[in-house]
Amino acid sequence: MEIQEMDLREMGSVIQSHVVLEVSSKVQSLLDSLETTTLEIAVTGDSGVGKSTFINALLGLNDGDRHAAPTGVVETTVSPTPYQHPRLPSVRLWDLPGIGTPCFQAKTYLQQMEFERYDFFIIVASERFRQNHVMLAHAVHAMGKRFYFVRSKVDQDLRASQRRRPTRFQEVQVLREIEADCIRQLKQEGLDSPKVFLVSSFELHRFDFQRLQDTLAEELESHKRHALLLSFPSVTAVAVQKKKDALRKHIWKKALLACVVSALPGLPLQLNIPMLMNTLGSYRRSFGLDDDSLGALAITASKSHGVLKNQVCSTLGKDFSENAVQAILGQAALYGQVAARLVKNKVPLFDNMVAGAISFTAAYYLLHTALDSFAQDAQRVLERAYGLEDEDQGSLCYPPEPGFIYD
To answer: What pTM was estimated for this model as a whole?
Structure first.
């Protein structure tokens, strides 16, 4: 009888190892395809329209950053220049030379710019959209690519309008007038039903930037949509929520990797710490909670770096360390131990599978609660950065709500 039980255990161990390795390979392949999906965004416009500043804003960089696109009132771009996203290497924004200059005529522009490499085009203008812009849009559409019109520097237009008519100034009315004028210009040049997004690169949280992001996301395939949502800066509560939702969809894959590693005979939960730390670090950066991102936001919002950092209240936001991660994992693992002992007594063949289930629960709990907490931190940071919080309440920190298993 003892020999038969030993044979069963050995057989179970072999079966488990084979199944676990197969599952692990499949899950890792899914994650790799998600994380390596490329997104190539082309941004073009005439000189002086704020094209490079717009690119820097999308990358979360200030114009003075050493990795930023050079800016100026004259055309600084003489060839397609890629700018890699600081957190997502597979995402690049391309600064294209302005169309309609002696070197770049509309008829040959797309061939010169190697149009096939880009997923979509953003055409930027600060005053008028011209015939060259419409010709480019038609050419892009004919070649199966999407294009979007961005009317930049609307913050400057609003200030100028307010100076001209201080007693009659209404921001909403002025914005409608700007949008209607842009659409009229584009229709006059022969473009039907154009979509125009009003944007300020220095105040992305205002105007149409969120609508632009939503439109781009809706029209991209799933993996590229995920890359877009993670790469664009979270400057509104809506953006924070959508980024959290995008990340939450894939928590189970990370937790399953933790599960299958622990299900292998003799491998402890602690082996998952580096993988989990890497995932949590990417979450923090995605929400702009790392020091570099907070510093860049402090400059943009003209706020103290320390003031913004004080809005980060979550446990891992304040203490992002292996010890803190291990403590949360240990707490979560306790929840499954009672059930685990029952299962092991009933079905000893699957001891290691039970260990994997505990690891899955612990990793899922860790990632889910951390994601919720980081999103809350990001919301508090944005509120303080842009003066949206209730001054009487100050900085309030709330624990994550329970019930993560049912989301």
So the answer is: 0.82
The neighbouring-strand residues paired with 265 are none
DSSP labels for 86-116? SS-TTEEEEEPPPTTBTTB-HHHHHHHTTGG
| 132/96 Cα distance (integer angstroms) | 14
Indicate the length of the chain as a whole number.
407
Q: Over the stretch 329-362, which tens digit does the pLDDT of each residue have?
A: 877 766 555 444 444 444 444 445 455 566 777 8
Scored b (16 or more CB within 10 A) or e, 93-130 reads: bbbbbbbbeeebebeebbeebebeebbbbbbbbbbebb
User: Within 10 Å of residue 3's Cβ, how many Cβ atoms?
Assistant: 7
CATH homologous superfamily of 39-233: P-loop containing nucleotide triphosphate hydrolases (3.40.50.300)
Alpha-carbon distance of 78 to 101, in angstroms, equals 11
**Inter-residue contact 295 to 256 (CB < 8 Å):** no
Tens of pLDDT, residue by residue over 110-131, are 777 888 899 999 999 998 898 8
Give me the residue spans of the domains in the chain: 2-35+248-406, 39-233
Neighbours of 277 (CB within 10 A): 16
